[in-house]
């Protein structure tokens, strides 16, 4: 008989109640007395376990009582309702067999473990309640992103991971090479001879797929990227990883307002999708990780996001009756304390801040008519601060070239990016969502290392 | 008025016919006489263009006639049916305005270009018919993969790209480093001092997420990875890229037969999804790229895949009335010519070949009782040969340790992989699908460089 999945039993109980079923899964807990015993089984399909009752009438009753935590078993029995009990039903076993045992030194015995400890057993931690919930939500969120964009006709573009250009200019990069480190080839002039490297030039790991996504938006109109990106920054914080996933939509025939509409729709869609498809997980997070989680997510879903300019934000902050660690003045970069004040204290909902000073933003952002600010937008959300950052892109060739010069960037490196402005370079816009930051927001988990299956951070690339 | 997308006009024509609509897009072709003219507009939402008719009654009639190919325009007009004409409808323009011009040296003028040439303008080629179709199919195929697995409750796992282990052992790897190539640090013993590198150890780009996926399958039961993988092989063929995407499901409480069932269901699902969602593109490929495409895809959808053992395959090949370039004997690796003979000439449908000699397969594949073969499976399809490769994994600790020894692999490097066998390491299986190879199969495109937006191959990492 085909095994029934525990998720199916929870979701379609009436189909199985009082029927004989077979399940298979791993033992989470087990206790027994002389006459009967209970095993909590998790089969991986669902956050919750199912309780299995076994009685001494089973021929291998004594052995079953000795099955260790984490052992894999197959259970045949009847699903019976248990009104009034903690769990709505249980399986009265007629047969239990061992599929694979587990050594007694299993590191995930039923007791509290710190997240720090669980990071050292990243190959086993998805079997714990908290991480089981985290990584299922991560999977559902990824799917929600694809679903949102695909249903709107967006084309998914896989932009390159290995990049031969340093156009992206967003911080330190990892070099990719097959050169022999014992014998780095040199040119006659005494420089490293990257001609001899695998790609015949210096190559690095990408920090963003945006520039390539722009090329595709000017062909397909609406596109998105979703893939790994990298930062070789030596910062050991709870919010930085060296390898993380990023999602970047890019839309043509669109301006900054269209961009904000899209980000707002997307965020609401994702939250709704996860709340609908992982209600048990969200309930768990709300109970054990962050008691404000549900309030916060509901607030986002039910709000019209506020839109203010950077200049307005600075005015609000200057008038605020609040001591900030970092001083506020027109031209300053907003710090998390400022962002949280605006979204949590002033507007109490998500806030788009737009039109930042050009000097604190990237070269590709569209210059406003005031010649001082650019058409950028950051989405600030209560509890976190910045969640999304984006802009309308500079589509005017002369303005873009001037910006490159101002920022001492080499025009030749941008030949194809400039080409896009030469041939039907219509107005377009886009933004980036750090995928892990979104997962942290959706789960209340506060360390990025705990939302990445096998995290990479300075001095750490285990597994 | 909100712009209507051309896809929507084709799919919901009755909604717009005889109505005033506004579209925006790029000029693909333009021709005009003294009294009227025609513009083919593509807005990126759809494979096909829409024809716009403009007449001299428009105040900027003369300018419109001079708009260059690739210019972005906005068109207001009435959608009228054109029974008997090549296209089912056209827009009679009441207003056409220029959004963004295009220089006259636009490299994608309407004429035949070789795929080789188009690779040099990878930032513009998605605007050509062929590549517009290829990369839309790529996007839809990616979505079909997510949809297939998510609807079956599989958990999507992002396995790491940067790997600190060389356990994967599948060929040459790219090194990832932040060391200064002008000054590689050395230990006192004269070795490279990877302690000083970013991660405190030697790191490379992943060649497969399988081992990590196994860890997750033993928590979630059914999981899949889908992300970039890398090979630093210096092979310049039409079928090899240095960076490509791979999809790897892994299922627990499952054996080789379950694995084959899954692969067969998945492949049929993907082909059906793409044929339903990109009929115009598939028709185009069938007409201009590969006249056997539709026959082949329909054959796959409508066949029950054949299953034979490697030993049976060798017997068939030995008896074959066919001159092969590579000799066939028990123990040989099957070459593409052998694979194609079996799937195209003998069975005329997809064929799973199972139970290969252990010596030509990886250490993690489950040893069969004959002690000579392992529970591996390759899926061979007409027109291509191998499309999917997988196996049941060795779950028995003692057998796995023996295999590691036999293959001179260091057990300590596999501590966590062995742990998985120690704690509820139930039978499990999985396979890998090279995403680009699937796209080549779905489109008939014969060079892998033409199904990757910005391909990376030896000596080439442009854009």
TrEMBL record, chains A, B:
Pfam families: tRNA-synt_2 (PF00152), tRNA_anti-codon (PF01336)
Protein's UniProt keywords contain Nucleotide-binding: yes
Domain Aminoacyl-transfer RNA synthetases class-II family profile: 135-453
Reaction it catalyzes: tRNA(Asn) + L-asparagine + ATP = L-asparaginyl-tRNA(Asn) + AMP + diphosphate + H(+)
Any one of the GO BP annotations: asparaginyl-tRNA aminoacylation
EC numbers on record: 6.1.1.22
SUPFAM superfamilies listed in its UniProt record: Class II aaRS and biotin synthetases, Nucleic acid-binding proteins
A GO molecular function held by the record: ATP binding
GO CC terms, sorted: cytoplasm
KW rRNA-binding (keyword) present: no
Enzyme class: ligase
InterPro entries named among the record's database cross-references: Aa-tRNA-synt_II, aa-tRNA-synth_II, aa-tRNA-synth_II/BPL/LPL, Asn-tRNA-ligase, Asp/Asn-tRNA-synth_IIb, NA-bd_OB-fold, NA-bd_OB_tRNA
UniProt keywords, alphabetically: Aminoacyl-tRNA synthetase, ATP-binding, Cytoplasm, Ligase, Nucleotide-binding, Protein biosynthesis
Cell compartment(s), UniProt: Cytoplasm
NCBIfam families per record: asnS, PRK03932.1
Subunit field text: Homodimer.
Recorded family membership: Belongs to the class-II aminoacyl-tRNA synthetase family.
The protein, known as: Asparagine--tRNA ligase
Originating gene: asnS
